[in-house]
Amino acid sequence: MKRFYQTYFIPLILILLLFLFTVFSILIHNRNLGSEVTALERIKQTGVLRLITDNSIHTYYYYNGRPTGFEYELAVAFADFLHVDLDVVAPGWNNMFTALEQGKGDFIASGLVITREGLEKVNYSIPYMTIQQHVIYHHLDTGPEKIEDLASLTLHVNRETTYHHRLNEIKASGVPLNYILYHNIPAEELIRMVHDKEIRYTIAANTIAVMSQKYYPDIRIGIPIREKEALAWAVSKKDPEMLEQINKFFLYAAQIGLIQRITDKYFSNIQNSDPFDLKKFHQRIETRLPEYLSLIHKEAEKYGLDWKLIAAIVYQESQFDAKAVSLNNVKGLMQVTSIAAEEMGLSNLVNPSESIKAGIQYFDKMIKKFEHIDDDHERIPFALASYNVGYGHVSDAVRIAEEMGLDSGKWQNLKKTLPLLSKPGYYTRVRYGYARGLESVQYVERILIYYDILKQKEMD
After folding, report:
1. pTM here?
2. Are 183 and 111 found together in one domain?
3. Which of 217, 249, 269 is the last residue before a domain boundary?
């Protein structure tokens, strides 16, 4: 036995030490597994931020195979702030809070109103926007004039939304209401149902209603049924660090004007929409555009341009009328001037093919003049303004913006300086002189509205 110990003592000690080390490692590993990993820690470990949102035109949707939408773009900026990638989870409106609770995402960004009911489930960030609830009805119907008039209506809203909660409050105040609840139906879908006369009344935020009116011009936005409410992002009550980072981001984004720029991109050109003009546009998409659709599609593709943007320009210029003549005697679908046409070797601009070829070629030329602007969304309005009023006048407006200390690569700033070209204090000291800059701004804004409408239509 003594000889056995002498021979195997060291190997036995090594085996024992290895066993103890293994047991210790397992205990440490299990302890780590049992500990709570915060969302922020997981994001840093994986390099991925997970957004929980809903599919809708004001939050998150796909166009040309690319994700877009107000909440999505703001979330992308937050991911950049954290130096991570963004992933999207869209479980449906009524499942978002459950998805957050189950750890399927890190935060909710979907136009959430801060509510008493929500505060019991989540922590809200500081607000980034305010909205107001309105009654939505068809223009052939009569809208209510006061809250008490709601008693005679049947309202349709999505379950567990701020609209649902508000109707409960009104009912509790003594107004006898009749309302039908839906599950996972976006507000804009209910607005569509009003437009198509499937239902008569719904409730929607003013931002969603005005945006939807572009696509559904027969709706009318009625009385508000509540004071203004604040929108915020939501995080789990278990993740105070995540809430802190979101609040830091919102303060930073507000300071540098990022929130305002994204807000302007999605909402600024919809405030003054004319529902009658929009209805005529929808009609002519069906009656006039098909005649020129393949031609526009073919020529736009040659330059790598979105044919829907070109179609929006064509409508603004001629309302899809090949025989259109402007007050300045400019003719054709894209109203290309004779000087511009001659420059591109074209002559018969009344011919639809010639006009579209010339217009697209000239517009592409304008886009190339602003290649130094990286963001397509910013570059397009500059090119549109140049197509309308001339590159020289746009250059003058850019220089005025620079003199005023504004970022001359942002359309929102050019919207301020282009109208100044009609004022003597400005046009007398710039190279190209007087221009009706305000008309040019309105021209661009109308095209962007038409373009946005076409983007939502399946016409490929």
Report:
1. 0.78
2. no
3. 269
From the CA atom positions of the chain, what is the Rg in Å?
29
Residue span of the structural domain in which 253 resides: 41-125+238-269
CA distance 105 to 413: 36
Read off the pLDDT of residues 43-67 as tens digits, 9 standing for 90 and up.
989 999 999 999 888 899 888 778 9
Bridge pairing between strands 61-63 and 66-68: antiparallel
Q: Return the amino acid letter for 333.
A: L
**How far apart are the C-alpha atoms of 109 and 124, rounded to whole Å?**
10
Same domain, 412 and 441: yes
User: Using one digit for the tens of pLDDT, what is the confidence trace for 297-327?
Assistant: 999 999 999 999 999 999 999 999 988 887 6
**CB-based contact 342:329 (threshold 8 Å):** no
- Is 231 within a domain? no
Alpha carbons 106 and 59: distance in angstroms, whole number: 17
What is the distance between the alpha carbons of residues 422 and 275, in angstroms, rounded to a whole number? 29
Same domain, 140 and 115: no
The domain total for the chain is 4
Q: How far is CA 316 from CA 18, 19, 350, in A?
A: 80, 80, 16
Rounded Cα gap, residues 261 and 255, in angstroms: 12
Share of the chain above pLDDT 90, in %: 67
Residues 101 and 250 in one domain: yes
Q: What is the mean pLDDT of residues 161-169?
A: 93
Could you tell me which of 267, 233, 260, 248 has the C-alpha nearest to residue 75? 233
Instruction: Give yes or no for a contact between 242 and 182, defined as CB atoms under 8 angstroms apart.
Output: no
Tokens 């992002």, located at residue: 233
CB 59 within 8 A of CB 186: no
Pair 148, 27 in one domain: no
Does the annotation count 317 as an active-site position? Answer: yes
**Pair (197, 263) in one structural domain:** no
Catalytic residue, from 71, 317, 378, 445: name it.
Answer: 317
